[in-house]
Batch of 3 targets.
Target 1
Amino acid sequence: MHDLLDSVHAATPTATAVRDSRGAWTFLELVEYSHAFSRWLHGKGVQHGDRIVLQLPTDRELVAMFYGASRRGVVFAPVNPAMKTFHLKSVIANAEPELVIGDSTSVGPLREATDLPVYDLADVWREVVHLHSRGTPVEPAAVTPNDVAALIYTSGSTAAPKAVICPHSQVTFATEAITTTLGYRADDVVFCRFPMSWDYGLYKVLMAHFAGAEIVLAGGESDLVLLNRIRETNATIVPLVPSLASMIGTLAKRATDSTPSLRMFTNTGAALPQSTIDSLRQAFPGVSVVRQFGQTECKRITIMPPEQDGTRPDAVGLPLPGTSVLIVDADGNELPIGQVGEIVAEGPHVMPGYWRNPEQTARAFRANPRTGEPRLHTGDYGRLDDEGFLYFEGRRDDMFKRKGIRMSTVEIEAAAMDIPGVRAAAALPPTPKRDLAVCVESDLPSHTILRELARRLEAQKVPATCHVLEDFPLTLHGKNERKQLALMLDGSDA
């Protein structure tokens, strides 16, 4: 992966590569600091194939450490700064790292979670700066495309986070394919609020640098200055999740200054409600709002071509170049165009599985019965049209029958988000303890929400109850925290 950086450095060494709240580095500076961190790892005895776990904020230093680890063939395993000791213990036990790096906030919990060496970033970086000033070379490591570049820990159906294995070959293929499809340019400035512990944030770094563009790491910025920072940095591309999109739309309505530099929003995590897309387009005339669909297990599955923004409003795009998407039934048989089934991805972007988790790997990653090529069975449901566009219908756990009708939480949430004044929404399927429910963040009373839903949905799909919340719980990556909502309602998991 470091070759992506080095090729741009060779062409434009003085261009700005990465910016955070404390300053910026050129491509030359980023390359030099990544070499210095590589030398630091060598000095600590970290070898090819070893893992390092890092619990750090996403800033310039973390980017340099990412590329520096890549240079030595060391496996980079970042974890979210908000992860608690309970999960840290399982992550460290699973990764079996050679060492762990934290900052002043995370060093204490990390030392509670492991007996391995835990280094404070402040001490590490002093040594890295010293190595940078000396410029002492170190024997390069022999890194191959099949070597593991990173472990990305995800939450999901298991109690402990599981790590997606990300080899250099799959990561570089996905980076090039996504960047080309979205049309990133060398003059772009990508304003990213997401941590590198999430693949969405990690790939934004790689994609920006593959294009020779600048990445602005804004995860630590206050929500109140968000639009100001987008203007000040002359951002042209802003990656979104629905909660951030809603926030930007709300802030933009109150703002008096325009943001003429913005040309593209990209979305992942969950579908953007049409009302949110409309508010973004109204606030930022001429901007494209690009819908995408994917999973960490293959990074990206489909992207709506930016030039077709506004067309096929229910579609989530076309497969990446060089990849394919199939819709299959419960027995793995391919279904005809238009029929709903499980979404299966195939291509060079499909990762090899989960780190030291053969059971979960066997469940999600299966061979094409004809070619033997790996396929990702996503557990998501959708359909294809006759031009190859994908339409997302929901996850396996999102789909259920009620009053004899099959439905999905996705369509109920979309209807709720269509109601003016609703800022967030999550539908919870029926359980033995309660009927279908919807939770919203809004100033509207619950009976108004239910009345408006009845105007938008068939009678069987209207929730029995509506719960209005002042603070809507979100996951570390800005998605709806369904488990917490379900626990609040009935003590069960969603």
Target 2
Amino acid sequence: MKFVAFERTQQGTGASRRLRHAGKVPGIVYGAGEPRMIELDHNALFHALKKEAFHASILEMELAGATEKVLLRDFQMHPWKPIVQHIDFQRVDATTRITKKIPLHFTNEENSPAVKTDKCLVNHVATELEIQCLASQLPEFLTIDLGELQKGSSLHVNDLKLPAGVKVVTHGKPNPVIVSVTEPVVEEEVAPAAAAPAAAPAKKAKGKK
């Protein structure tokens, strides 16, 4: 994806506030050289942030007539308004080793024996993974085929077929679960209780003559 940034000369809280009032977002680009202060059009950035590729792929930033490859590192939103307040990018090249969270795309779930035959529920325990790789090897997402899922099974990190050069960061967990399968709950039919025999009508007491 490509986007356009502009050089920012003024710094500080007051300057950033004026930028935001003018429909701009202050930001910074760092890595592989001197950090550069930038500003971006808020509406264009706001819509770009809605796209998955903007978060998990190498971006082409046009700045001062030159194009640089960057990676989105962080952004801050207003606590309750749909306003981007600040954004950070990192310069990368083919030899930069990066750590990045990328989304998981699940396919063929509905065709798996667990779902199609046994009517099980498939739980997506993880929807993204943190990976390490060279910038040139960064995948936009990982596709996970669930077509072979069986009842009572689960899918772990070690079961994934990763692209060449990509390693999952598990933060000490040996083999985290990605997908689990829950068997359907079978409701037992309760037989209706037998009707109790009707009570005999009470006898009226005879009055004394």
Target 3
Amino acid sequence: MAESENVDASSASENERLRFSVSLVRQGRHSFYTLTMPSNVLARTCVVSSRKEDPKHGFQRVLDEKRALEIANYIDTGMGTIPNSIVLSAQPAANLKVIGRGKTLEFSDTPGAFLILDGQHRVYGFSKASTQLRVPVVVYNGLSRRDESRLFIDINTKQRPVPAQLLLDIKQLADIEDESEGILREVFDSFNSDMRSSLAGMMAPYESAKSKITRVTFNSAVKPLLEIFSGRDISDIYGILNNYLSAVRRCVGPKWDSQVVAKPVVFRALMGLFPSIAQRVLDRFSGDYSEANFFEIVSGIFAGMPKNKLDVPGTSWVALRDYFEKRLRSKLTL
């Protein structure tokens, strides 16, 4: 337990000394202390040094107030639990001392006592929250500015974030999935698992894979279409899109590897084209969205198309969709 818990941190003066129980940890050529601090103490004693504010010596990002407010709201709604440690470097203003046979850390309760190496937005969020909580903290002492900069680089390059597609996949387990995310997940899973899927073997549900469709790509491409599927159940949405993509694969098969449709740019362009194709199927075939009827509409787009248009589709799915649209209009007959 921190020895300063009886101190009213909100009224502590800049000359006051705070004490916290710590453990010493040695890793490589560095040592640091682990402890917990009240969030208001962190907010009051920590600073950041950004490149914008200090071009010569600064190395951190400019604070994003919106992100900090999101953290504050997360804490104040009672949902907040942030177990990641804030990483600090003690500054001369802290006058840091280790006492009590190395078990207690003492420092001055003053602004600028610590420089934040990792966790600046969490600390900024703490300062905006009305709720106080205890926070895990790592404190380095005696670092040079070069050491601080190198640790900042290591912390922000060695840690790998959880893939966005995995987060989408487990939202259902966390019970934080909204209605559209639920629909997209089920449609994606149908494409991934159904033996009749036009995208069989082309889906990457958990992590990125070359020439495969991730949940992130799929959601970005299909979510804008949900409005036109209003009132349709999951099997209908999947069935119609599957028939459309099966027709496309029939068209591209003779000239291209049929898995070219899984290229993110191509897939997003095809989904962007879908409303125009579906409208023509509705008009010509009274809404019978069979593979054969889709094929009647899309076949003209790919007939005579230069091979490199899909082999090297570029980086803009919008440009590719517009190209498809132009070819579609040029094949229109009355």
